[in-house]
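Hi R.,

Here are the chain sequences for the assembly we discussed:
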Amino acid sequence: DARVTQTPRDKVTEMGQEVTMRCQPILGHNTVFWYRQTMMQGLELLAYFRNRAPLDDSGMPKDRFSAEMPDATLATLKIQPSEPRDSAVYFCASGLVDTGELFFGEGSRLTVL
Amino acid sequence: AQSVAQPEDQVNVAEGNPLTVKCTYSVSGNPYLFWYVQYPNRGLQFLLKYITGDNLVKGSYGFEAEFNKSQTSFHLKKPSALVSDSALYFCAVSGASGGSYIPTFGRGTSLIVHP
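And here is the predicted structure of the full complex:
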């Protein structure tokens, strides 16, 4: 079964540290999304790529967050420096523009102390 | 701007009874509508979608949803609930506005099926 793979599954770090989350989208998919899930805010869109080009990162705090797709098999989300309010589950999802449905990874649970 | 409303934070139903999880949407143009399910400590899983065609859409695990254009609704239904259906359900909408097709998700509805 093709699936979206995210690493790490769990990350505990201290405030001020750099955090990098990685995602391997499903081969052949042309869209990649990063979402953040919290109890208070629900699912928030952080970044959107189509054919590896960043099309929307309006939901992402620009001063500390960055998202890239160095190649078709890897998407990264970086937080530098991390803060306690960044504690959340971060999901990567991939899909095809034509069909619309997204396939989500299992998420990276981040805890910033 | 597009938006999704899931008016119920939680839906409780007895096993064997029919269930409905409500969703209404707002979008420019023709909507793409989706339902996803999330089990604890897992990612969201696609259940079904409506893009065009028959207003009644059938999906995974016996779920179906009815698209109602006049009421701008896309309620999720199942004729007979199972305890294993207990999970968090998300409705999502996207439109061709600007050609972006970025989905907007509702806040989710927790479905609890009692034995």
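Chain B has no helices and twelve strands. The CA atoms of residues 29 and 95 of chain B lie 7 Å apart.

Let me know if anything looks off.

Best,
T.
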